[in-house]
Sequence to fold (286 residues):
Amino acid sequence: MAPAICRALVSTLAGLGSPLLKQQINGPSKDLPYSDIAPASETQTRIAPSPAPSSANPDALISALTLAPTEQERLQILVPNPPDISNLTYTFINNTVLPPTGGSIVLSSVSVFPALLTTNVAMAIGFVNPCGINTPHSHPRANEFLTVIQNELVTGLILEENPGGAGRISGKPPVTDANGPLPQVGTTLGQYQGTIFPQGSVHFQFNPTCQPSVFAAAFDNRDPGRTQIARNFFSLQPNEVIETAVGGDGSVLNAKDINSLRRRVPGSFALLMEECAVRCGIVKKA
Fold:
C-alpha cells in the first residue's frame, strides 16, 4: 500500500508543475535553463595551480618551508620534480677581485640558500688575494671550522678574558695584567689544514704570500653573522665612550682622532698588508 501512495503523491506534485520533479521523473527538460541542470563540476571556478617555490625566489621558498608542518613536506617543497635537486644545490661563484684589493667571500646562509632553513649549518668560501687580510671579526651565533683549500693562511685568535674572575665560585682568579693586550694565538695553515674559531671569538686570517689563497669555512648555525671589530668599536657614540674605553682622558685618543678614524675604518672583507704588498710588488690604489 505504501509504495502505491508514494507514487500517487509524486505524480500529483509533478502535475502541479514542479520542474525539478519533472526532471527527476522524466529526465532533464530542454525547456529548463542550463544552469539548473549543469553538473556541479562545470559550475565551479577552475584555479590554476601556483608554481612551486624555487631558489630563484628565496623569500617565497622560505615562507613555504616555514609553514610546512613536517620534514617530509619540506622536502617535497624543496624537491618538487625529482630527480631535480636544484633547490638543494648552491654554487659558490668565485667573485674575487684582483689586487690591490684584499679579496672577497661568498656565504651560503639561509637568506640566499633557503634549504638551510631546517638545518644548523652554513658555509663560506673565501678568496684571499696576495697580502690580503680577512680583517679581525667575530661570528656572534656560530663556531667556525676553517680549512685552507689553496695555498696557505696565517691565523690569529684572541683568547677570552674574565676580568676579576667574575662568576667564579671556587678557586682563585687568574693573575692578569689589568692593562695591555690579551694573549693572541695562531698558526700557519697549509693546504687542507684547518682550525677552529669558537663562537664570538675575535679572529683573522692573513695571506702572507704573493699567490692567492682560498679557504672553506663551516658554521654550526644557518645564520652565523659577522661583526667587524674595528668598525663596530668606532661606531660607538658619543666619543667619550671610546675615549674612556681606551683608558684615556682625551690625551690618548681625542674626539678629533676618533672622528677621523671613524671615517677611515673600512667595512670590506679583506684589506692589503702594507709590508707584504711592497714585497710582492703590488701597487696600491692612490
Remarks:
- Confidence is low (pLDDT under 50) at residues 18-43.
